[in-house]
Amino acid sequence: MAAATLSSPTLTTNASSLDLPMLRKIVPELPEDLEQLLGAIAQASHRIADTLRTGDSHTKSGIENTFGDEQLHLDVVTNEICFEELRACGLVHIASSEETPTEEDLGGANSGAGDGFSVSFDPLDGSSIIDTNFSVGSIFGIWPGRGLLGRTGREQCSSVLTIYGPRVTLVIALPHAAGGPRSVQLMLQHDRTWEVVHETLTVAPAGKVFAPGNLRATADNAAYKRLVDYWISERYTLRYTGGLVPDVYHILIKGKGVVTNVVSAAAKAKLRLLYEAAPIALVMECAGAASCTAPGPNGEHPEPISILDLVVTGLEFKCGVAYGGVEEVETFKKFLYPAKE
Fold it and tell me: Residue 39 in 3-state DSSP?
């Protein structure tokens, strides 16, 4: 049987679809242009949710992206949706995605110094588990101005995680909110509007929940093996789906725990700083959590620093990560960076 052909829901550009009035109620100082861009991302997320519920979710397209990863039809369609909405809002100079890893000029209307935005995104995080009907997500990082290379995650003015499960929700990081950094959760309603369900998400310093990504690295990374053994001996609860976005969401919503993705000589780094690691780090740190690099097998990342302080030296730049409660990340550092303690 021939593979089903996927089509994306119609592009919507009317003004009502490009704002988030509920968000402005709790963050009245939110800049109008950032609010409109977040609305475009929310609209893209809505269209992706519709596509996931009606599409042939696990058919391969026969296309490889620049990184050599074979794409699903859904990877291609969701990528197109994001580019369409970002282009239509007229505020984005440069956009780059994990599926199209180049700096694409979207012709943002605001061309003055400091105006407009640049956006990185992973349109469909969790392709490897989508055929099981597990929750998957999208990741967006937003930088002010033009260009993504040479920036740090700390320069982001916002980032967004979308999760597509029984419900569709967004978590939006707002590092410059008047009352201090915060991460806000919104949920898509039956009338196709978004409702704020958590005005401020908070991750506790400690909590015995763990999600150990790239667990095969424990076979030749003794420090990671000791850390996993510690979690088990201390009776931590395993909450791991194989999808980065749902695992991070679990910690955000339950308010405790740690997610890791550690590397070794045989189990290489998978997470790209620009499209995944930095936007997630902003969401987590705005919720009071911490992020940290993981040391590489060839001397990469010899110092434990926040993911937000890594420089995007290349669109393909990868790193190991830890996200979680402040005390949980400190425990991670003690095992992975023992010489620094």
Answer: helix
What tokens does 246 get?
């749902």
User: Tokens 């740190």 map to which residue?
Assistant: 285
User: Which residue shows structure tokens 């919720």?
Assistant: 287
10 Å Cβ neighbour count for 296? Answer: 18
> Using CA atoms, how far apart are residues 335 and 31, in angstroms rounded to an integer?
42
Specify whether the backbone of 299 is left (phi greater than 0), alpha (psi in -120 to 50) or beta.
left
For residue 272, give both structure tokens: 């790209």
Residue found under tokens 């505020």: 91
User: CA of 224: how far to CAs of 238, 276, 325, in Å?
Assistant: 16, 21, 18
Specify which residues 71 forms β-bridges with: 63
Distances (CA, A) of 167 to 94, 136, 216: 30, 11, 31
pTM of the model: 0.91
Mark 186-200 as b/e (b = at least 16 C-beta within 10 Å): bebeeeebbebebeb
Alpha-helix runs per DSSP H in the chain: 21-26, 32-54, 73-88, 222-233, 244-254, 278-286, 326-336
Task: For residue 177, report the phi and psi dihedrals to the nearest 5 degrees.
Answer: -60, 145
Q: pLDDT (tens digit, 9 = 90+) per residue, 113-162?
A: 448 999 999 999 998 898 899 999 999 999 999 999 999 999 999 999 99
Collect all residues with Cβ–Cβ distance below 8 Å to 86 and sequence separation of at least 6. 37, 40, 41, 44, 92, 95, 106, 119
Do 144 and 157 contact (CB within 8 A), yes or no? yes
